[in-house]
Design a protein that fits this description.
Elements lengths: L1 H39 L7 H22 L8 H4 L3 H33 L12 H4 L1 H20 L13
Length: 167
């Protein structure tokens, strides 16, 4: 079971990283073409700003999920570092549980938000505004998955990066 979770987690993480690269590449291309068409050809892309907004929203939430998978979210751990080792593990477990609860709640609220804006469309792109919001519930669920896999596989409940040795 653990090897299956590791494979799924690794595959999901690899897909997320490729998605980040693709999104950044498309944004760079869009910016370059937008400047060229506006200032060289005199025919600006009217839709480029809307697409850029869509991509930056997706980039933010994909990046959040990747950071949870790789324990790259920073913490100020000076208080925890001053605690006895036995209490640190309890605090780390509580932080993990609290993170999962908050991410789960945000995924649920993000899904509800998608439902409320699904009938509204972007005036420029002509697509549902839910496409801007779908990133939130999807990648919060992925973040929860990454946190849970890290906890199960590593038997460590430290969900965030840390400077402490041998935590």
């Amino acid at each position: 079971m653990t090897s299956f979770l590791v494979k799924v987690n690794s595959g999901l993480l690899a897909t997320e990283k490729v998605s980040i690269g693709v999104i950044l590449g498309v944004m760079a291309l869009l910016l370059t073409l937008g400047v060229a068409f506006r200032y060289i050809l005199g025919a600006p892309f009217v839709w480029s700003e809307s697409v850029s907004k869509l991509l930056i929203v997706w980039l933010t939430f994909v990046g959040t999920s990747v950071a949870f998978a790789e324990k790259q979210h920073i913490t100020v751990d000076s208080v925890v570092a001053a605690m006895p080792r036995s209490i640190r593990s309890v605090v780390h477990t509580l932080m993990l549980v609290l993170s999962i609860v908050i991410l789960g709640a945000m995924a649920f609220l993000g899904y509800e938000y998608c439902q409320t804006v699904a009938s509204s469309t972007s005036p420029i792109l002509g697509i549902s505004l839910a496409w801007f919001a779908y990133a939130m519930p999807i990648f919060f669920v992925f973040s929860v998955f990454h946190l849970m896999v890290n906890a199960v596989v590593e038997c460590s409940f430290n969900a965030f990066e840390t400077d402490m040795e041998n935590v």
